[in-house]
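tokens incoming
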């Protein structure tokens, strides 16, 4: 049986990229580029997994800055989203999968990207453990995510502004309930400090945390402990 969240992503796949760029004023493109430049400085290995990768924007950006990996997988639970990757400039092979139980052996990848996917997992801690399992020792997990707001600006944005305009735009271009889900999923998710602490308890060490647009989103770079 298809979960309601997976069904929702299948239904909005055709407009997903357009609305992501529009709602973020195209900042999401810059955030992905910053993530990929940061990983390049770490001199990572050549095996890439774009986890919860949707239509493949993160994988395509990674290849632009880091070259083509020897192994590249675009993994997502939504077949509709993976279909949206057709035509993207990425060599990553699309694989429909469960991020909580991936069909890969231990230490299969050197880099995992996760863009706006952690908060959609049924259990973020389980997702971190599974990501640590398939990462090589010393490998990197780059998370780009909207975390539960704690600062004054972020609380105002997510509790006052976002519930007003994000579902309205979603209703106009796609599905209102999907974009109501987006806002609510942020409010229900962990604060970034709690997420980092959870990662450190599940096989990772923190490289850095960097806010995007005054903390509307965060780039969290983690290294798999050897």
């Amino acid at each position: 049986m298809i979960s309601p969240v997976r069904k929702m992503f299948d239904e909005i796949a055709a407009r997903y990229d357009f609305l992501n760029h529009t709602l973020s004023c195209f900042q999401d493109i810059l955030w992905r580029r910053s993530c990929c430049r940061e990983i390049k400085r770490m001199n990572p290995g050549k095996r890439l997994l774009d986890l919860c990768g949707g239509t493949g924007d993160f994988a395509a950006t990674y290849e632009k800055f880091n070259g083509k990996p020897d192994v590249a997988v675009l993994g997502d639970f939504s077949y509709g989203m993976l279909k949206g990757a057709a035509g993207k400039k990425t060599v990553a092979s699309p694989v429909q999968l469960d991020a909580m139980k991936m069909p890969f052996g231990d230490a299969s990848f050197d880099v995992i990207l996760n863009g706006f996917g952690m908060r959609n997992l049924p259990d973020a801690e389980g997702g971190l453990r599974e990501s640590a399992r398939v990462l090589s020792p010393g490998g990197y997990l780059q998370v780009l995510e909207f975390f539960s707001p704690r600062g004054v600006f972020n609380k105002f944005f997510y509790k006052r502004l976002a519930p007003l305009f994000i579902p309205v735009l979603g209703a106009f271009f796609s599905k209102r309930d999907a974009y109501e889900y987006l806002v609510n999923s942020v409010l229900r998710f962990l604060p970034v400090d709690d997420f980092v602490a959870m990662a450190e308890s599940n096989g990772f060490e923190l490289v850095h945390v960097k806010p995007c647009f005054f903390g509307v989103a965060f780039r969290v770079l983690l290294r798999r402990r050897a």
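note: The chain has a mean pLDDT of 92.
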